[in-house]
């Protein structure tokens, strides 16, 4: 009994301890959850930036990219975040509409398959969505072929996850006029629709499906971290929709110089060389040492599909309705 | 609800607990609605979500309760080796975080699972767990044990003296004792499970198969996360409350006042038992259904234990502290409300079940944000919200016991001139140890596995074990995540076991 009375006190002290602020200036970067985890880029990037900035870099992790935006909208202009890192192009329009962001002012040679000239949102990594299946199994060569096959896939719900939303955009850009038909044909291939990427990928690894919606870079994780070359991303003729992950400076930041310094650091070699084997995405700028060994085995689509933030926002509701109607039959 | 002849317990703690619950449920909803720009009403898709949600919740709750009655009956009247352990273990599925339970169910009913392997071996076609039946299966897996425990408590609350009297008269026990008890207990149990299934999110989404299996909670999620349409989120949360109110109103009409009378807590000696085989068959089947997936979680998780990163232990420690604080707080609130008694207690005790975790989290964020950086409050808020969300379960276990003590002993207490605190300490607490321990165990374990509020508030340094598990999955480390799931299962279960054991003492259950 006595013990339990102590516990709130212990919790309270632990919080106070973590809340004490050192004299060094603090730069707060709000990002998604997996970025700050031990296995994500967060810890290495924190160490690398703090070597040069004379500051304390703090990450605030919040769910996924969509949760990140919602958190920012909740906090509004009074947010303590100086940098927001981890939105993607499908979320940029809504993020821009908050009016919370300032121009980044960085000019860097980005190694993206598309040109990038957004004044506020600066990419730090990118990847192609792809279906990932097992080596040796039947591999369709297009969304259409997948829809016509008996292959069983798991996808994510576009109403609760960013990859799910990405697939919606993929189908809509590849089949602008017949997206609804494609979804109708895909319906019998879909084992289930999960709330997020983790659940879907888990189901695939458990053998519940032949393939899962993920990234062309997913096999790199298995190859490099697990020395397992049994996973393959399927190359599709229609092209692959891209996810470009971006960061931006919060206009009301109390550390504008540090924030600018961080954005410049973000496209530097030190930051970019950490990305491939921690976030398992392509770096926005290819590091001097090149991509890690193993990345050369990945498929590289001939055609990169991407809607502008405004177009993506404009067609989202239509695409969502088509998806829902086709899969509810 | 029983009207007390004299005020026998202090009333302010109950009022304080009720106020806290109201702030965290209605208050957070109001905070979300206050910030909203109201745009439009419910879409046809929202109505479809409401229909699906209600249908699956009705079926899931109905099946859970129907299956629980014979099992609870068998457990109430049979004595066998390992019975006590079995009853404790039965708490486990309910305490599992959703994603862990889904892993276990898939290992049994999935494409490469035990059942389909057996079917393939027999040359029979495979079954699929995905779809409406998958949702119901998972909900029954989760809630059947809870239903069994709650109904079993009803059985054990029938005084042994009544059975002896019935025996001496050779009267039908079923009609005289068991049926009235069931009529009193079952509607409440049904309501609790119905509401749990009503607010289900991840189960329905993972096993539902697609957009047909959309729940109201998902619509709230979408409104908050992707559309940032606070008005629609608040509206949908109101719909959820509305469904709860309707369900509760129906249940209250069905509920009856207890007429069992007072006993001296003797162990029941049953004389009317034939057909023991049937009872044991029921118990065996239910144990098989509940424990095979759990065993699979353990089996899958064992290799992952070696892969766990060092900071998982800090996360586990944080989870244990949160669970302990939350169980203590939940228990105090439940006791305060139960002693206060009456309709207020009943309403307040059901409200958290109808609340959307996401709306509660968002609303709490909005309430806290003007005053302090929410990240600093991540753990205290998690404790507070978890305690509130677990309150209905604790209250369901404790409330009835307290009412019975009050009805049976309040005159005695008054005639002895006990002070209000003395009454609670000397008469009430010793007599409600069993439900008290059960309630605390549930609260601790539920809090341990919770992944709702923390994700909205957490900063870098505050990850809990479920959050760490999700982060492992997000970093492709599925095997390590399975290890974390096993750790979580073990901790939840131990927390439940300690509280439950402590509450039982030497009572025979």
From TrEMBL, chain A:
Gene3D superfamilies in UniProt: Periplasmic binding protein-like II (3.40.190.10)
- Top-level taxon: Bacteria
Q: Which InterPro entries match?
A: ThiB (IPR005967), ThiB-like (IPR005948)
Source organism per UniProt: Yoonia vestfoldensis
Q: What is its main location?
A: periplasm
Please state where this protein is localized: Periplasm
Entries under SUPFAM superfamilies matching the protein: Periplasmic binding protein-like II
Pfam families in the cross-refs: SBP_bac_11
* UniProt keyword Signal, yes or no: yes
Q: Enumerate the Gene Ontology biological process terms.
A: thiamine transport
What protein name applies here?
Thiamine-binding periplasmic protein
NCBIfam families documented for this protein: sfuA (TIGR01254), thiB (TIGR01276)
Q: Which keywords does this Swiss-Prot/TrEMBL entry list?
A: Periplasm, Signal, Transport
In the UniProt record, which is one GO cellular component term? Answer: outer membrane-bounded periplasmic space
**Family named by the database record:** Belongs to the bacterial solute-binding protein 1 family.
Which molecular function term from Gene Ontology is one that the record holds? thiamine pyrophosphate binding
Signal peptide boundaries: 1-22
- Is Signal among this UniProt entry's keywords? yes
Automatic annotation (TrEMBL), chain B:
The biological processes this protein is annotated with in GO are: transmembrane transport
Where the record annotates domain ABC transmembrane type-1, the positions are: 50-499
Known InterPro entries for this protein? MetI-like, MetI-like_sf
Give TM segment ranges: 12-36, 48-72, 84-109, 121-142, 185-207, 233-256, 277-299, 319-339, 351-372, 378-398, 436-458, 478-499
Q: Where in the cell is it found?
A: Cell membrane
Q: Where does this protein chiefly localize?
A: membrane
Which UniProt keywords are present, listed alphabetically?
Answer: Cell membrane, Membrane, Transmembrane, Transmembrane helix, Transport
Give the way it sits in the membrane. Answer: Multi-pass membrane protein
Superkingdom of source: Bacteria
Please give the GO cellular component terms listed in this UniProt entry.
plasma membrane
* Entries under Pfam families matching the protein: BPD_transp_1 (PF00528)
PANTHER family, alphabetized: MOLYBDENUM TRANSPORT SYSTEM PERMEASE PROTEIN MODB (PTHR30183), THIAMINE TRANSPORT SYSTEM PERMEASE PROTEIN THIP (PTHR30183:SF9)
Q: Which family does it belong to?
A: Belongs to the binding-protein-dependent transport system permease family.
Q: What is the protein's name according to its record?
A: Sulfate transport system permease protein CysW
Source lineage: Bacteria, Pseudomonadati, Pseudomonadota, Alphaproteobacteria, Rhodobacterales
């Amino acid at each position: 009994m006595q013990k339990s009375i102590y516990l709130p006190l212990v919790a309270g002290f632990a919080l106070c301890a973590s809340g004490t602020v050192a004299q060094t200036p603090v730069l707060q970067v709000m990002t998604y959850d997996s970025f700050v985890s031990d296995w994500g880029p967060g810890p290495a990037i924190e160490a690398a930036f703090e070597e040069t900035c004379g500051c304390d870099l703090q990450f605030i992790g919040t769910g996924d990219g969509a949760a990140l935006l919602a958190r920012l909208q909740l906090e509004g202009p009074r947010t303590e975040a100086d940098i927001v890192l981890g939105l993607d192009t499908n979320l940029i329009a809504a993020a821009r509409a908050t009016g919370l962001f300032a121009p980044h002012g960085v000019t860097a040679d980005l190694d993206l398959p598309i040109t990038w000239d957004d004044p506020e949102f600066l990419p730090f990594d990118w990847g192609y969505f792809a279906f990932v299946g097992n080596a040796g199994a039947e591999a369709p060569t297009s969304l259409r072929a997948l829809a016509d096959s008996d292959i069983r896939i798991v996808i994510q719900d576009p109403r609760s996850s960013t990859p799910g939303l990405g697939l919606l955009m993929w189908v809509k850009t590849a089949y602008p006029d017949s997206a609804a038909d494609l979804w109708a044909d895909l319906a019998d291939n879909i084992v289930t629709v999960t709330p997020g990427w983790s659940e879907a990928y888990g189901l695939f690894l458990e053998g519940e499906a032949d393939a899962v919606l993920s990234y062309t870079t997913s096999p790199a994780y298995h190859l490099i971290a697990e020395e397992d070359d049994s996973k393959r991303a399927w190359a599709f003729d229609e092209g692959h929709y891209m996810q470009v992950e971006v960061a931006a400076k919060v206009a009301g930041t109390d550390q504008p110089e540090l924030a600018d310094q961080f954005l410049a650091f973000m496209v530097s070699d030190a930051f970019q060389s950490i990305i491939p084997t921690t976030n398992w995405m392509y770096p926005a700028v290819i590091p001097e040492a090149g991509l890690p060994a193993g990345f050369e085995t990945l498929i590289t689509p001939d055609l990169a599909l991407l809607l502008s933030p405004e177009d993506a926002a404009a067609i989202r509701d239509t695409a969502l309705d088509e998806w829902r109607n086709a899969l509810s039959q | 609800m029983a009207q007390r002849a004299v005020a026998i317990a202090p009333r302010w703690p109950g009022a304080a607990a009720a106020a806290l619950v109201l702030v965290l449920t209605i208050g957070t909803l109001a905070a979300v609605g206050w910030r909203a720009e109201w745009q439009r009403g419910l879409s046809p898709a929202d109505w479809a979500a409401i229909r699906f949600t209600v249908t699956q919740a009705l079926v899931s709750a109905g099946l859970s309760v129907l299956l629980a009655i014979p099992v609870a009956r068998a457990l109430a009247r049979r004595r066998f080796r390992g019975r006590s352990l079995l009853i404790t273990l039965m708490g486990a599925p309910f305490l599992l975080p959703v994603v862990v339970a889904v892993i276990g169910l898939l290992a049994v009913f999935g494409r490469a699972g035990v059942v389909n392997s057996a079917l393939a071996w027999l040359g029979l076609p495979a079954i699929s767990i995905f779809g409406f039946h998958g949702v119901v299966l998972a909900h029954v897996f989760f809630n059947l044990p809870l239903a069994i425990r709650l109904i079993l408590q009803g059985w054990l609350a029938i005084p042994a003296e009544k059975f002896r009297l019935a025996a001496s008269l050779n009267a039908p026990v079923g009609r005289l004792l068991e049926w009235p008890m069931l009529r009193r207990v079952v509607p409440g149990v049904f309501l609790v499970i119905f509401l749990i299934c009503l607010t289900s999110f991840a189960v329905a989404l993972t096993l539902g198969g697609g957009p047909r299996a959309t729940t109201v909670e998902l619509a709230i999620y979408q409104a908050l996360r992707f559309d940032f349409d606070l008005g629609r989120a608040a509206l949908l949360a109101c719909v959820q409350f509305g469904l709860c109110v309707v369900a509760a109103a129906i249940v209250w009409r069905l509920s009856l006042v207890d007429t069992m009378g007072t006993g001296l807590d003797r162990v029941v000696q049953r004389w009317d038992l034939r057909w023991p085989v049937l009872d044991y068959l029921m118990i065996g089947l239910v144990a098989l259904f509940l424990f095979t997936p759990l065993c699979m979680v353990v089996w899958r998780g064992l290799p992952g234990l070696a892969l766990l990163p060092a900071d998982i232990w800090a996360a586990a420690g944080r989870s244990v502290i949160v669970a302990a604080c939350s169980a203590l707080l939940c228990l105090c609130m439940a006791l305060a409300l139960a002693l206060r008694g009456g309709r207020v207690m009943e309403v307040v005790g059901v409200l958290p079940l109808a609340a959307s975790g996401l709306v509660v989290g968002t609303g709490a964020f909005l309430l806290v944000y003007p005053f302090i950086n929410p990240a600093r409050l991540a753990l205290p808020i998690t404790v507070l919200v978890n305690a509130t969300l677990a309150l209905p379960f604790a209250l369901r276990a404790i409330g009835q016991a307290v009412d019975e003590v009050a009805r049976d002993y309040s005159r005695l207490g008054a005639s002895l001139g006990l002070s209000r605190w003395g009454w609670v300490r000397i008469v009430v607490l010793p007599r409600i140890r069993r439900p008290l321990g059960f309630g605390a165990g549930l609260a601790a374990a539920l809090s341990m596995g919770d992944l709702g509020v923390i994700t909205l508030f957490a900063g870098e340094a505050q990850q809990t074990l479920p959050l760490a598990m999700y982060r492992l999955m997000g970093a492709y480390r599925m095997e390590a995540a399975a290890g974390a799931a096993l750790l979580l299962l073990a901790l939840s279960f131990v927390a439940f076991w300690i509280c439950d054991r402590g509450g039982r003492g030497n009572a025979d259950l």
